Amino acid sequence: MKIGIPREIYEGEKRVAIVPKMATQLLKEGHEVFIEANAGEGAYFTDIEYDRIGAIIVENAQLLYSEVDVIMKVQPPQREEVEMMRDSSIYIGFLSSVLDDEFLNLINKKSITSFAMEFIPRISRSQSMDALSSMASIAGYRAVLIAAQHLGKFFPLMMTAAGTIPPAKVLVVGAGVAGLQSIATARRLGARVEAFDTRPAVREQVESLGAQFIEMELVADAETATGYAKEMTEEFMKKEREIIGERAAQNHVVITTAQLIGKKAPTLITEEMVERMQEGSVIIDLAAEQGGNCEITEPGKNICRHGVTICGVLNLPSTLPIDASAMYSRNITQFFKHLYNGENRKLDFEDKITKSSCVTHNGEIVNDYVRNAIRKGANT
Amino acid sequence: MKIGIPREIYEGEKRVAIVPKMATQLLKEGHEVFIEANAGEGAYFTDIEYDRIGAIIVENAQLLYSEVDVIMKVQPPQREEVEMMRDSSIYIGFLSSVLDDEFLNLINKKSITSFAMEFIPRISRSQSMDALSSMASIAGYRAVLIAAQHLGKFFPLMMTAAGTIPPAKVLVVGAGVAGLQSIATARRLGARVEAFDTRPAVREQVESLGAQFIEMELVADAETATGYAKEMTEEFMKKEREIIGERAAQNHVVITTAQLIGKKAPTLITEEMVERMQEGSVIIDLAAEQGGNCEITEPGKNICRHGVTICGVLNLPSTLPIDASAMYSRNITQFFKHLYNGENRKLDFEDKITKSSCVTHNGEIVNDYVRNAIRKGANT
Amino acid sequence: MIEPLLVSVYIFVLAIFVGFETITKVPPLLHTPLMSGTNAISGITLVGALISAGAGHSSLSTVLGLLAVIIATINVVGGFMVTDRMLEMFKKGKKKD
Amino acid sequence: MIEPLLVSVYIFVLAIFVGFETITKVPPLLHTPLMSGTNAISGITLVGALISAGAGHSSLSTVLGLLAVIIATINVVGGFMVTDRMLEMFKKGKKKD
Amino acid sequence: MNIIIALAYLLSSILFILGLKNLGSPKTARRGNQLAMSAMLIAIIVTLTKNEILDFTYIIAGLIIGSAIGVIIARKIQMTAMPQMVALFNGLGGGASALVALAEYNRLTGEPRIDVIISMVVSLFIGAVTFTGSLVAFGKLQGLIRSAPVVFKAQRFFNISLFILFLIIGIIVIINPANSTGLLTILAIALILGVLFVMPIGGADMPVVISTLNSCSGLAAAATGFVLSNNILIICGALVGASGFILTRIMCKAMNRSITNIVFGSAGTATTNNSNNDKRKVVSYTEEDASIMLESAQTVIIIPGYGLAVAQAQFALQELVTILINKSINVRYAIHPVAGRMPGHMNVLLAEANVSYDLLFDLGDINDDFQNSDVVLVVGANDVVNPSARSDKDSPLYGMPILNADQARSVIICKRSLSPGYSGADNDLFYLDKTQMIFGDAKESINAIIKLLKA
Amino acid sequence: MNIIIALAYLLSSILFILGLKNLGSPKTARRGNQLAMSAMLIAIIVTLTKNEILDFTYIIAGLIIGSAIGVIIARKIQMTAMPQMVALFNGLGGGASALVALAEYNRLTGEPRIDVIISMVVSLFIGAVTFTGSLVAFGKLQGLIRSAPVVFKAQRFFNISLFILFLIIGIIVIINPANSTGLLTILAIALILGVLFVMPIGGADMPVVISTLNSCSGLAAAATGFVLSNNILIICGALVGASGFILTRIMCKAMNRSITNIVFGSAGTATTNNSNNDKRKVVSYTEEDASIMLESAQTVIIIPGYGLAVAQAQFALQELVTILINKSINVRYAIHPVAGRMPGHMNVLLAEANVSYDLLFDLGDINDDFQNSDVVLVVGANDVVNPSARSDKDSPLYGMPILNADQARSVIICKRSLSPGYSGADNDLFYLDKTQMIFGDAKESINAIIKLLKA
Ligand SMILES: NC(=O)c1ccc[n+]([C@@H]2O[C@H](COP(=O)([O-])OP(=O)(O)OC[C@H]3O[C@@H](n4cnc5c(N)ncnc54)[C@H](OP(=O)(O)O)[C@@H]3O)[C@@H](O)[C@H]2O)c1
Ligand SMILES: NC(=O)c1ccc[n+]([C@@H]2O[C@H](COP(=O)([O-])OP(=O)(O)OC[C@H]3O[C@@H](n4cnc5c(N)ncnc54)[C@H](OP(=O)(O)O)[C@@H]3O)[C@@H](O)[C@H]2O)c1
Ligand SMILES: NC(=O)c1ccc[n+]([C@@H]2O[C@H](COP(=O)([O-])OP(=O)(O)OC[C@H]3O[C@@H](n4cnc5c(N)ncnc54)[C@H](O)[C@@H]3O)[C@@H](O)[C@H]2O)c1
Ligand SMILES: NC(=O)c1ccc[n+]([C@@H]2O[C@H](COP(=O)([O-])OP(=O)(O)OC[C@H]3O[C@@H](n4cnc5c(N)ncnc54)[C@H](O)[C@@H]3O)[C@@H](O)[C@H]2O)c1
C-alpha cells in the first residue's frame, strides 16, 4: 500500500509517526512510504535519511494526502487535514480527543477507515502496539526531570564537607505506567519516593521499585477488566485527598498521574493542600491534559502559588522527540502490520484488536464504545 | 561581631550567603546577624524564618552596610556595594573575578579587610570551607539535568515492547569535582559515561564511579601542588582535541568542565568537531564563565549549531538555590569561625588558610598571588 | 575369648565415625555415582566370599562360597566400572572444550 | 604375639583419620580454646599414670607413677577448667544482653 | 607374613577411606573411585595370599565368571538405566554377604563363639533383605514390576510381625547354633521382608530406597567381617554403612521428605491411593544441582522477570553472573520487552545492580541463541517464557513473542511456587524434562547458589 | 567385667570424639569441652575399677594433689596469661607420658615385647621433648626467658646430630631392653632437644609451637597406649595428635607462615637478627575472626571510604549489612563528609547498592556513638579515620574532623596494604591493639566474611 507520513502540524509536536528504521521495515514488506518534507525535523531525522532508505519525499502535505492510501500520524487530524484525505483512505493514529459528532460525520462522509491507537485493547499480544503505554512511560521519565529542574534542591542525599543534604522526597500519585516510570526515575536520581494508587495490585509493583506504598484502605474492584482504574466514590475521594494532603506537605515533589479512561481526571490536590506544602516544592501534573489532578493546574503553564511551582505539563512525549518517535513508530508499524497482514491485506473484524481499535469503516461508526458515547451525548 | 547579609543584587543570583540554620550558629557564638529584607527569597527562605531565630531584618542595603562589621556575600561586591561598606569593615565571599587595580584601590582606600573564598587553600582541614568544591559539585549535578532536558532521548537503556532504546552516551571532559559529580549523576540516570582528564590520578576516580576512562598518553606532572590542573603544551592540546573530537562524535552528550585556575579555559572542542557530532546532541559547557571549552559557546545562551545544542551555562549553583545556599553558607560560616576563633577574635596570619585567603588588610594587598598578578598586569 | 570381638567393635565404631565424617555435603548430581561407588566398596564382602570359597571344607560351603564369589565379583567389577563411566561422563560435560 | 600391636595400629590409624576429619575449619578466635581443650584431652595419659602408680611393683615405679599422676591430673583438671573459662567468656561476649 | 597381610589390609583400608572421601566432591570423585578400586585390588590379592585359603579352583572360576558378567553389564548398560543397575549390583552384594554367612555356618565346628553366631545371623538377615529388596527396586525401575506402590491391607502389621518372628528365631539360633532349620527360616523371613519392604514404595522414591539398602549391604559386609574376624570387612562395611546413612539423609533432604515418610508412607495404608499417576510432573531441584549445572555450562542465558523485582534479587543475581563470568562462562541476560510491570522495569532493576549494558540482549537479538545455550536461568519470570503464547490459541498470551527458553539444553527456574504470572496462564515450561524448578524466594535461591559456587 | 570396662572405654572414646568435634565450632565449643570432661571422668573411673590396680594410696594422693594444684592455677590465672598456661599444662602432659614410660620400663620383667619397648622409647622421647619444649615456651610467654629468638651458631647441625644420636641409642635400647643407661641418655637428649627446639623461636610464633607440642603430647599419650596396650590412650592420643596437626596447619595459614619456616626459620642462622624488635606491630587477621567479631557484636558501625569505590564493593558490603541486621545487630554506616574523591561519593556508591538512607549517618550525628559500639568496620577508608588529624600538628590532616573509629571497642579494617590514603599520612589506627587488619581487596574480603556468616 501507499503509506503517507505528513508533517505534524499540531503546535509544539516534534514527533514523527514513522522513523527511518520503521520506514525500512514497511518498505521491506512491499509498501511504499511517502513522507512530507521536514516531517522528521523535530526529532532530528533528516529528509536525507528517509531518502537514503528509499522513502519518497513529498514537498507538501496536499500532495502527500492526495497520493496515499494510508495516513499515519501522531496527533489526531485537524479539520484541514481530514479534508485533504482521499475518500476511502485509511487513517491510523491517536484519535479519541477529536471524536465528536461533527468529526465523525466528516470522516464518514469520506468513508475513511480510521483506527485510534488509544483503543487498542491491553492484551498480551498487543503490547508492542500499545502507544499509550510507551508514551506514558516517556511522560513519567520526563516528569521527574522537569521536577528536578524546578526544584531548588538536590534529588540525592549528599554527605559532604559542606554539610549533609537530605534527599528530595517525591510523592507519586497514580502508579500506572507513567507513575511507575516516575518512581523508577526519581529513585535512580536518589530521591526518597512514596506512591499511592487506588488499585491494590499496584502495591507490590511500587515496592518492587524500591518505593514506599502509602497505606490507605484500598478498594478491591478498583480496576476495570482492561486494567484501567474505575471512578471512585466521593467519600473515598475525600479520604484520599486527606491522606495525599498530609503526605504532600512532607514531600518536595508531587507527581500526579491519576487518570480515568475517557473521563475528566479526578481532583486529588486542592488549593488548600498546595498552601500546606513547603515553599519551593514542585507539583508536576501529568493529568493536565484531562483537566489536571490539581485544582489550580493551568494546562500548559508553570505557575507559582503559595511558594509552590505547579507545572501543568502537556504532551511530554514530544519533549523527548527522538525516542518518542522511535517508540511510537514501532507501535504504529506493528499495529499496521497486524491490521493488514492477510494475503490480500484485508481487515479481520473477528480479531479483537482490529475490532476494538477501528472507529469508522465504510462510512459508519463501527466502534461500540464510540457509538454509545455519541448516542449518550445526543440524548443529553 | 555584627554580621551583615545583604540581598544579592547580581542578576539571576538566587543564593543567600547565610541560611537560617547557619545564622543560628553564628548567633550562638555571640555574634549579631543582620539580614536585608527578602535576602533569602530566591532560595525560599523567608524573613519570618530569619526573624524567628533571632536575626535582625534590615529594610534596605544602605542601612545594613552602615550597621555591620562583617559583610558575607556570595557574588563579588559590585562598585556600589563597596561604596556602601563601612571603613575597616570585613568582607567575606567570592572575589577573584572583580580583582583589578581599580577595585583593589577602592577597598584599600576604605581599609577593608577582604577574604576571597576562592583562595582558601585545598588542604584537608579546610575542606569544610571549600566553596569552590561545593559549588562545583552542584554545577556537575545540574549540568546533567540540563543535558537530559535538552536531549531528545532517554538517558537509561529501555527494553520495552515498543523496541529497545539504547542508553544515552555521555562524555565528560575534565573530571574534577564538577566532572566527577556529572559522571555520578549521569550514571545514576543510566547513561553510559566516559571521561577524560589530563591528570593521571583521575583515572582511578573515574573508574570508581563506574565510568570509562578514555585512553591517552597522560602527563605525569599535570597537577599543581594544590591539586589544580596545569596548562598543557599546544602539541598536547592538539592531540587531546583529536581524541575528544573522535569520542564526541560517538556520544550524545558532552559535558566539559576543564578549567585552569586563573586562566582562560582551554579550547577543547572546535566548531569542526561540533559539526561531526550527531544531530540532536547536546554540549554543556561548564567552563562558559572562563570563556568556554567549546569554541562556539556563547556564555549564558543555549545555541543550536549543526543540529547540536550548545549550552553556555552560567552560575549553575544559583539554579539549585536552596541547597547551594545551605552549602555555601556552611562553608562561609566555617571559614569565618576559623578566621576569628581566638579569644579576642584576632586574625592569625601565621595560619595558612588565613594567609592565603586574605586579599587586603589594613589598606594593603596582603595576598602574594594577587600582588604578583597586579604587578604583572601593570608591567605589560 | 571376648577380646577379639571387642577389638572388632572398636574398629567398627571408629570406622563408623570416619564414614560419618567423610561424607558431609554431596550435590545431588553426585548422588547416584556416590551410591554406586559405595555400593562397589561394600562388595568388599568378596574378601569374605574368597575365604569361604577357598576354605575347602564341605562341598556345600564351597558351592555357596563360589556363588558368593561370583555375585560379589559382579558387584565389585560392575560397580566400579559403572561408577567410573558415570563420573567420566560428568567430567566431559564439565570440560567440553 | 604380634596381633595386639597390629590391632592397636588399626585403632591408631582410624583414630588419626577421625582426628583429621573432625577439625577442619576453626576460626582463629577459637584457636587457643581448642588447643587448650585438646591439651586437656591429651592428659588421658593420666589413665596410664594411674595404672603405673597403682601397679605396686617397685617403689621407683610407684614414685614415678605418683609423679605422673600428679602432673597429669594438673594437666587434665587445669586444662579443662581453663578451657571452660575461656569459652564461657566467649559466650558472654556473644550474648551480652 | 601375617604382619604383611595385616599391614596390606591396613593400607587397603586407608585407601578405601581416602577413596570414599574423594568420591564426595565433584572435582575428585573419579580419583576417589579409582582409589577405592585399587584398595579393593589390594584387599583381594592379600586375601588370596592368605594361608586360610586352601583351594583356588573355585575362587579363580568365580572371579573370572563374575568379572566377565560385571564387565559386560557395565559396558552394555545405558546411561539412563544407571539407577536400576546400582540397585541390581547392590542386591548382589547383599546376596553375597548372605551366602558367605551360610557358608560359614556350614563350616562351623564345635561350639562356636557367641559373637560369631550373632554376626552370622545379622549378616544373613541384612544380606538377604538387601538382596530381595534391591531386586524389587531393580524390577520397579526397569519396569518389570509396577512402579506404583503395591500395598495390601495391614501390611505394616504383617511386616512388624515378621520382624518379631525373626528376632525370636534369631535368639533361638544363637542359643542353639546347631539349629539349621532356624537359620533357613531366618533366611526365608529376610527374603520376604525385603520384598515387602520395597513393594509399597513408589518409583520416584526408589533412589532413597536403594541408598538405604546400600547402607544395609555395608552393614551386612561388616557383620560378615565380625563372622570372619576380618578387619577390612568391618572397616569397609562400617564406612559404607555410615556414609550410606548420611547419603540417604542428604537425599531425603534434597527431596524434602523424611525417610520414615518414604518407607512407611504408604505401607499398611492400602486405602490411600498414592497419586503417582501420570499427571504432569514437576521435579523440584536444589540449589546444589543448579550450581553444578551452571558451573559445567559454557553458555548461560539469564531471563529476569517481575519476580526478580519482587524479591529484589538483582544484586544477588549480578553477583552470580560475575562469578560465572570469572569462571569463563559466557553469560548474557535476555530481557523480554514486557518483563516486569512497566516498560523498562528490568532495566531499572539491573541498572541498580550496576549490570553492564553489554550483558543485556533483547528478544530479537538473543532468541536464536537459546538453542545453542547450555543453561537458561529464569529468575522470577513466567509469562515471558510461556510456550503457550506460540501455539495455544486459547491462551491469554497467544500471539505475544516469547523468549525461547524451552529451546535451551536445560532450564533452571527460580520462583516460589507453580502459580501463574500476570496473565494467569499455566506454563508448560515448568513440566519439561529438562526443566529444574527451584522453589523459593528468588533472592534466597540465588544466594544459595552463589554460596555453593564459591565453596 | 572386662567387657564392661572395654565398653566403658569405648563410650569414653566416643565422647572424646564428639567432644573434639564440638570444640571446633564456636557455637558448640563449650559443650564439646564438657563432653570431653565427662569422657575423661569415665575413663578415670573405669581405670580405677580395673583389676590391674593394686594399690590406691598413691593414686588417691596424686589425684588430690594434682586436682588441687590444677584448680588453683585455673582459677587464679588471668585471661591474658592463657597461652602460657596452655603451654605449661601441655608440658605437664608430656612429662606425665615420659614418667609413665619410665615407670613401665622399671616394671619390665623378662623379655619384653619389641613393640612395647619401641613404644616406650617413643613415648619417653616425645614426652620429654614436649616437657622441656613447653616449659621454654611457657618461660618465653611469661617473660621469664628472653622472648626473642635465642640462637647459636650451627644450632641446626647440633640439633640434627642430637637427633641422630637419639636414633642410635634408641635402636640399641630396643635391641637390648635391659640397657637402662641408654634409656636415661635418651631422656637427657630429649630434654635438651626440647629446649633447643623452642629457644630459637620468637615469642610471636609461640602459639604455633605450642600447638605443635600439643600434637606431640597426643602422640606421646598414644605411644603410652601402645606400651600399656590401652585402646583409649591410643585413640585419644591419635585424636589429639591428628587434630593438633590440623590446628597447627590452620594457625600457620592464618599467620601466613609455614611450619618449617617457623621451626627452622632462625635456628642455625645465628647471623640474622630476627627483627622481633618493639617496632609498631600490625596484626593481620582473617575474615574468620572478622565474622566472629561481627556476629558477636551488638552495635556495628561501618565506615566506607574511597577504597570501597575502587573495589566496587558496595554491593557486597550492603549484603553483609543485611545479614547482620537479620541477626538483629544494630548496624549503621558512618559517612565522613570527605570520604571518597568527590562530594557525596559514598552516597552515590551506596545508592547504587540500594542502601536505605536511614542507615546513613553523618559525622556529627554518629561521632559520639563510636565509644559505645562493639565493632567498627572500616572498608577502604583511611584519612577519614586517622587519629593524627586530632593531635599531630605536623600531619597534613591536622584539623580535619575525623570519625572516632579508634574509640570503638574493636576495629576491623579492610584494605590492601598499610599504604597511606590521599593525604599520604601514616595512620596510627592500624597499630592499635584493638585493631584487626584484614588485608586484601575490599570486595573479596567482604565476600569472604559474608560466606562465613552464612555458613
Ligand atoms: N512490562 C510491562 O510494561 C507490563 C505492564 C503490565 C503488565 N505486564 C505483564 O507482566 C508480565 C510480565 O512477565 P514476567 O515473566 O516478567 O512476570 P510474570 O509472568 O508476572 O511472572 C512473575 C513470576 O515471578 C514469581 N515471583 C514473584 N515473586 C517472587 C519472588 N520473591 N521470588 C521468586 N519468584 C517470584 C511469580 O511466581 P511465584 O508466585 O510462584 O513465585 C510469578 O510467576 C507479562 O504478562 C506482561 O504482559 C507487563
Ligand atoms: N570527598 C571529597 O570531596 C574529596 C576530594 C578530594 C580529596 N579528598 C580526600 O580524599 C580522602 C578521602 O578519605 P578516604 O578515607 O575515603 O580515602 P583514603 O584516605 O584515600 O584511603 C582510601 C584507602 O582505600 C584503600 N583501598 C584502595 N583500593 C582498595 C581496594 N580495592 N580494596 C580495599 N582497599 C582499597 C587504600 O589503601 P590500600 O592501598 O592499602 O588498599 C587507601 O588507603 C581524604 O583525605 C579527603 O581529604 C576528598
Ligand atoms: N497489556 C498489558 O498487560 C498492559 C499494558 C499496559 C498497562 N497495563 C496495566 O494497566 C494499568 C493502567 O495503566 P495506565 O498507566 O494506562 O493507567 P492510567 O494512565 O489510566 O492511570 C494512571 C494511574 O492512576 C491511578 N488512579 C486513578 N484514579 C486514582 C485516584 N483517585 N487516586 C490514585 N490513583 C488513581 C490508576 O489506578 C492508574 O494506576 C497499569 O498499571 C498496567 O498494569 C497492562
Ligand atoms: N582538599 C582536598 O583534598 C581537595 C578539595 C577539592 C578538590 N581537590 C582536588 O582538586 C582537583 C581539582 O578540582 P577542581 O574540580 O576544582 O578542578 P578545576 O575545576 O580547576 O578543573 C576541572 C578539571 O579539568 C581538568 N582539566 C584541565 N585542563 C584540562 C584539559 N586540557 N583536558 C582535560 N581536562 C582538563 C582538570 O584536571 C580538573 O580535573 C580535584 O580532582 C580534587 O581531587 C582536593
Give a quick precis of the structure.
The complex is a heterohexamer, with 2 copies of chain A (380 residues), 2 copies of chain C (97 residues) and 2 copies of chain E (455 residues). By secondary structure, chain C is mainly alpha-helical. Chain C contains 4 helices and no strands.
Note down, in words, how this protein is organized.
The complex is a heterohexamer, with two copies of chain A (380 residues), two copies of chain C (97 residues) and two copies of chain E (455 residues). The model of chain A has no long low-confidence stretch (mean pLDDT 91). Chain A has 13 helices and 17 strands. In chain A, helix 1 runs parallel beside helix 11 (321-339) and helix 6 crosses helix 7. Chain A is globular, with a radius of gyration of 22 Å. Chain A has 380 residues and is an alpha/beta fold. Helices cover 36% and strands 17% of the residues of chain A. In chain A, the strands form three sheets. Chain A has an eight-stranded mixed β-sheet with strand order 3-2-1-4-5-6-16-17, with helices on both faces. Chain A has a seven-stranded mixed β-sheet with strand order 11-10-9-12-13-15-14, with helices on both faces. Chain A has a two-stranded antiparallel ribbon with strand order 7-8. With 97 residues, chain C is an all-alpha fold. Chain C contains four helices and no strands. The model of chain C is unreliable at 92-97 (pLDDT under 50). Chain E is built from 17 helices and six strands. Chain E has a six-stranded parallel β-sheet with strand order 3-2-1-4-5-6. In chain E, helix 1 packs antiparallel against helix 2 and helix 11 (287-295) crosses helix 17. At the C-E interface, helix 1, helix 2, helix 3 and helix 4 of C face helix 1, helix 2, helix 3, helix 4 and helix 8 of E. One nicotinamide-adenine-dinucleotide (NAD) is lined by residues 122-124, 127, 130, 132-133, 136, 173-179, 196-199, 202, 227-229, 232, 240, 257-261, 266, 268 of chain A.
CATH-defined topology of the largest domain in chain A: Rossmann fold
* Rounded mean pLDDT score of chain C: 78
Unreliable segments of chain C (pLDDT under 50, ≥5 consecutive)? 92-97
Label the overall shape of chain A.
globular
Order of helices and strands of chain C: HHHH
Please tally the helical runs of chain C, counting DSSP H or I stretches of 4 or more residues.
4
Strand content of chain C: under 5%
User: Considering DSSP H and I runs of 4 or more, what fraction of the residues of chain A is helical?
Assistant: 25-40%
CATH superfamily of the largest domain in chain A: NAD(P)-binding Rossmann-like Domain
Share of residues in helices of chain C: over 70%
Count of beta strands of chain A: 17
